[in-house]
Amino acid sequence: MNDLSPVIAADKAHVWHHLSQHKQYETIDPRVFVEGKGMRLWDATGREFLDAVSGGVWTVNVGYGRESIANAVRDQLVKLNYYAGAAGTVPGATFAQRLIEKMPGMSRVYYSNSGSEANEKVYKMVRQIAARHYGGKKWKILYRDRDYHGTTIGTLATSGQDQRAMQYGPYPDGFVRVPHCLEYRKQWDVENYGERAADAIEEVILREGPDTVGAIVLEPVTAGGGVITPPEGYWQRVQEICRKYDILLHIDEVVCGVGRTGKWFGYQQYGIEPDFVTMAKGVASGYAAISCTVTTERVFDMFKDAPEDGMSYFRDISTFGGCTSGPAAALENMRVIEDEGLLDNCTLMGERVIANLIALMEKHKVIGDVRGKGLFCGAELVADRLTKEPADEKKVQAVVADCLAQGVIIGATNRSVPGFNNTLCLSPALIATADDIDLMTNAIDAALTRVFG
Ligand code: PMP
């Protein structure tokens, strides 16, 4: 391999890494990745890693080094790389049609380039619907404790993870928090926990006034908030409440979307009928930047009233929503998932991750709870199973570091808040084999032994 030390030096001197405290690089070098193939990555020092987090943040659903996606993007770029605004492109139209085929009940696709942006589009649509159809009422948007919807000021106003939002306010008005639904950390001592957690949303709606609430945004399975799978009965009740009060249901599929849970979309696991669905990461598995805001025809129609006043259409553009690389990559990404049977593999391998983690609970009392859907799995670590006191944050990080030293990249949620859902996270590409899964959980086993004894 070429000497890549100048590249590491350049990175150290000039790149401001995401989510990183750079003080650490006074004593160590930043990691620079050079190559990826399938589930594996190589860094600039030549070290090989097994990637159990799909590119760090649940993105590379079909794995690294896909020549067919690179070729599809290349072919499209030399034909037509871009056109934005009030016109379509061939891959944009074709992917929209293919996507809608997978989403019965949905109808329209609005393109942009990040999860935050896709969510922010919904917030703008909801406000415009309120202004034009509800006399300025129904402008509030509910969001849930522990959910996350993006990094812009608008989407941070709906961050249920305070540590991400706390230094960047003040935020715009009209975003209201509802309680989370994590049964492991019970807020109500009842049998039908799912319904109770959903009823808590209704209580907030009644407090705010149903005629002021336009929409609610929810992750089907909460990602960064600690891999929170919904309790039985939760979604059915949420849907009922939305219908009862004429509240639009926005499902944030930025993580769950395009196969991560073993179905095309996480909401399809729970029989939800959304009004808005947003997606980003897995849409093109990181081969291009693309996100989609998908709506029903009913929502779309609300932007067609009184066209003569020139104000009814959605007055929004995303410059790079006109890049054709996104839908070209997304189309090929979808074909790969279908032709290789990756949804079924995801379900099967997800069950293996959960079974392996549950088996580890016998040996490691520090594992308090195991949760997941498809290849989207977490193990919450606690200092005491009875009190559920969270495990020491530094030790949780030591487990992640130990796995890395073994050559396995795993994740842990909510690093910056001591005590908040210290959940180890496994979210490998949907191509993972049984051997890959066992390597990952064996690494966790060894790390837990070393760190917690
Ligand atoms: N929604 C969810 C559920 C996410 O996890 C994320 C990113 N981690 C986002 C939205 C924001 O996506 P992006 O970083 O592409 O803006």
From TrEMBL:
Family: Belongs to the class-III pyridoxal-phosphate-dependent aminotransferase family.
Protein name: Aminotransferase class III-fold pyridoxal phosphate-dependent enzyme
One GO molecular-function entry: transaminase activity
Keywords: Aminotransferase, Pyridoxal phosphate, Transferase
Cofactor: pyridoxal 5'-phosphate
Keyword Plastid in record: no
CDD domains: OAT_like
SUPFAM superfamilies: PLP-dependent transferases (SSF53383)
A Pfam entry, by short name: Aminotran_3
Keyword Membrane: no
Residue stretches in coiled coil: none
